[in-house]
Amino acid sequence: MFEKQIEKVGNFRLRIHNQMMFLQGEKMKAMQIQEALSTPIGSAADFDDDALVTELEELD
Predict the structure, then answer these.
(1) Distant-in-sequence, close-in-space partners of 52: CB < 8 Å, separation ≥ 6
(2) How open is the CA angle 39-33-37, to the nearest 5 degrees?
């Protein structure tokens, strides 16, 4: 009876470990996606935020 419980606990720990590894991988994917989305591309990459803020303040 105890051996079956030990086996069940071992299987449960293995499933938890696998889920943790999967979630860590998904977290890394999400971080890479977030980084890619926050990086300006094309003509947006040519804008200087500080210069735009200064220009906006001058217009006000």
Answers:
(1) none
(2) 30
Token couple for 33: 């996606």
Span 33-51, pLDDT tens digits? 999 888 877 776 777 788 8
SS3 track for the chain: CHHHHHHHHHHHHHHHHHHHHHHHHHHHHHHHHHHHHHCCCHHHHHCCHHHHHHHHHHHC
The model carries a pTM of: 0.58
Reading the block at residue 41, the tokens are 């591309």
For residue 22, what are the domain limits? 2-59
Split into its structural domains, the chain has a count of: 1
